[in-house]
Amino acid sequence: MAGRPPKDDSRDKQYRVRLNDAEDDMLSYCSQQTGEAKSEIFRKALKAYYENAKYVKTALTDEEEEYEDYGLDHISLKRTISCPHCGAANNMDFEEDCDSSSEERQMGPEITYFFDWKDCECVACHKKFRVHGHISEYPMGAYNYEEINVEEE
Question: Residues 110, 103: contact at Cβ < 8 Å?
Fold first, then answer.
């Protein structure tokens, strides 16, 4: 019995990824919105992260320039925040008003963006709320983690 002929680019490597409920919800949402399989979403995210890491490594070989001279775009600081009063989606761009700090690491700086927005007004119920926290990118141009807190006012 011969079976199928081998593919040039067979996917015979397997990895097990453990997700918490929030991460599983994000993955399911992306899959539902794009119509793509969850495995394909992981592959695309890996490709994007890989290309960014290669780009940063290449840019860092020129030691005479500063990081700011590379022209690398940083991650998006745009988020959709749910109103703590009514749950309505509120689009926010934290780049409009944030502070940042940088810490040198192996693949360049880790940049953390800090924000504390008081008196945000919900687009639906018009009640006030506060959004504060931070978003981190490392290496430059790659999402690392975030902590965003939303409170009633």
Answer: yes
| Helices assigned H by DSSP within the chain | 21-34, 38-59
The neighbour count for residue 142, using CB atoms within 10 Å, is 20
111 in Cβ contact with 94 (< 8 Å): no
CB 75 within 8 A of CB 52: no
Which conformational region is residue 83 in: left (phi greater than 0), alpha (psi within -120 to 50 degrees), or beta?
Answer: beta
For residue 17, what are the contacts with CB-CB under 8 A and spacing of at least 6? 42
Q: Is the pTM of this model over 0.85?
A: no
Examine the pLDDT at 71 and tell me if it is beyond 50: no
Residue labelled with tokens 């919800």: 25
pLDDT above 90 (res 23): yes
Q: Quote the radius of gyration of the chain (alpha carbons, Å).
A: 20
Counting beta carbons within 10 angstroms of the beta carbon of residue 9, is it exposed (0 to 12), middle (13 to 18) or buried (19 or more)?
exposed
Q: Across the strands, what pairs with 79?
A: 92
DSSP 8-state code for residue 97: S
